[in-house]
Write a structure and sequence with these properties.
alpha+beta; Arc Repressor Mutant, subunit A; three-stranded antiparallel beta sheet; 6 helices; globular
Length: 180
């Protein structure tokens, strides 16, 4: 059954027509808060809620969320340029440079200059970096398995397909591994 909503700003109430259930007449519902009507807010909230536990473990290991994102992005990659890293971790190039510099100092990353273009360099994990984040990757993957167990594999696959479609249409095309 289709529902028609009329919003009345003077009362903040939403009248739902036609009446659902017995008794006829109109039923009043509270108008959802602005933030709760925004897909972007719900996506951010879901991301926060889903990653809260493992980000706590990441922080306990001495990493910031951005450092973890950068290190995690390099887990499956041989190496990435600074520009590629900036796009993948959603940071400006200057912020990414500071993150890379700090992780280089700590010995988790190494940098290799491009043989053709000396201005360009590639960043990759060191053996130390792989060792230190390997168990964090395992923990993140275990968290994902819990989500799949809770919501079901088909539902998670649909959600991921829909999210990839959103990023494809509204993003900068960074998720090249899953492009259709």
């Amino acid at each position: 059954m289709s529902r028609n909503f009329q919003f009345h700003s003077f009362s903040g109430l939403c009248m739902n027509e036609p009446s659902i259930g017995g008794g006829g007449g109109l039923k009043l519902k509270m108008k959802p808060k602005f933030k709760d009507r925004l897909l972007s807010h719900l996506l951010a909230r879901a991301s926060h809620d889903l990653s809260r536990n493992y980000l706590q473990v990441v922080r306990e290991r001495g990493f910031t969320a951005r450092q973890w994102r950068l290190l995690g992005c390099l887990w499956d990659e041989k190496s990435l340029t600074l520009t590629e890293l900036s796009q993948v971790i959603f940071c400006s190039q200057s912020t990414t440079t500071r993150l890379v510099d700090r992780l280089l100092e700590l010995g988790f990353l190494e940098k290799r200059v491009d043989a053709i273009d000396r201005r360009k360099f590639y960043v990759s994990l060191t053996d130390k970096g792989r060792r230190i984040i390997g168990d964090l990757v395992d923990f993140a993957e275990a968290t994902e398995r819990e989500i799949i167990q809770t919501l079901g594999a088909d539902r998670v696959a649909r959600i991921m397909r829909d999210l990839r479609e959103i990023t494809k249409r509204f993003g900068n095309g960074v998720d090249r591994d899953h492009a259709d």
